[in-house]
Amino acid sequence: MNKESEKYFRKFRAHIEKHVKIGDSEMAHISSYFSIKRIGRKTDLLEPGNICRFENFVVSGLFQSSVPDESGKVYTLNFPHENWWVGDFKSFTSRTPSIMRIETLEDSILLEISKTSLDELLANSQPFSNYFRTLSENASIAANERIIQQLAQSAEQRYALFCQKYSVIRDRLSQKRIASFLGVSPEYFNQMERRKKYETL
Amino acid sequence: MNKESEKYFRKFRAHIEKHVKIGDSEMAHISSYFSIKRIGRKTDLLEPGNICRFENFVVSGLFQSSVPDESGKVYTLNFPHENWWVGDFKSFTSRTPSIMRIETLEDSILLEISKTSLDELLANSQPFSNYFRTLSENASIAANERIIQQLAQSAEQRYALFCQKYSVIRDRLSQKRIASFLGVSPEYFNQMERRKKYETL
DNA sequence: TAAAAATCTTAATGTAGTTAAAGTTTTTTG
DNA sequence: CAAAAAACTTTAACTACATTAAGATTTTTA
Lengths: 201, 201
Fold this sequence. Notes:
The structure is a homodimer.
Chain A: H1 3-17, H2 24-31, E1 35-39, E2 44-46, E3 54-60, E4 63-68, E5 74-78, E6 85-86, H3 89-94, E7 101-104, E8 108-114, H4 115-124, H5 126-152, H6 155-165, H7 167-170, H8 175-182, H9 186-200
Antiparallel strand pairs in A: 1-8, 2-7, 3-6, 3-8, 4-5, 4-7
Helix pairs in contact in A: 4-5, 8-9
Chain A binds a DNA duplex through helix 9.
């Protein structure tokens, strides 16, 4: 393992240690289940119809996880980036075709793990299993919060919250993509942005 | 433990065994962390501002988990019922005040567990920990699917899906409550229902 | 670096869903 | 079982956001 790779796994470890404490040997054990994957921008990590074969920890980069409909419209679930996980967990776990497209928006570096490996790791590492449970719990809390936001807030309010919560990626995303996350048309989003500008002048 | 109580824990065990296999002694161990709670309809299991002190497995009954806003409007996350868990996991885990109201819509029977007990149980029972992780994973998948539905579907389509997915509780809920789950006004929901009736005549 | 493709901008017009208000029916409670 | 409360129904005016269309600007690719 070279210098660069070590850096990726150190980053991964730092993330794990935000949730559970682990020693050097435990981390070596965990790391052995993952491979480094580099992927250039403007490629698809996953296409609708395919089975998601890997879950991935994002070392660096930016993705868009979305669901297309018949008419070509796109609905965005999230924009996985540094220190997130990316993949379609439903397709991954059930080994069934996904309805999602996961696009790479920037050159990215991932630590990938297959279903077989993850099952093994979860069975063999109590700390990793706790880490992974905590992640799932948090993911579910975050998703529920977004459901409430969609029900309770206007597009403008949702946009304000998005800017707060995702300031790190706000400027790396086109208007069109943010609109598809908020659930409004690109035209309406543009109008909102214009209103915002006039207000501040 | 009396006959009736045994029945509740058998039901709980059946649910656990849908996800992981456990033996009699393991189940006895798990059960020892829970208490039976009976709660009458039209009471609040949790009020906004309070800390959620228990997570609960629903043996029988029906609840509404919702978030109120300043103006008195109510947004519904879900309707926990038989074989679901009910509680505000965010408030429970972080021991911070909840923004949710959880109302009992029918006389209900719960198996409750405190935060301290759950932490202990998760640390002491590998099978339970796996069960709980699987639950969280599924909760997160389900929540993400709902987000996509809210983005992609009209109120009418969302209602059709609701009827499919929740046929068991559909007729135990008022129009007003279903409307607050779908994210439409009671008036508009009523209009939709009328349209539906005329169509079938 | 030209040309093709994608994104952004602007405005007009259309629509799903809201609001308010009042009446009716059903359910709950003393 | 009467009365109060809650839920349902109906209508009309209104608003947040969608759609379409077309030109301007930026980004990508050959």
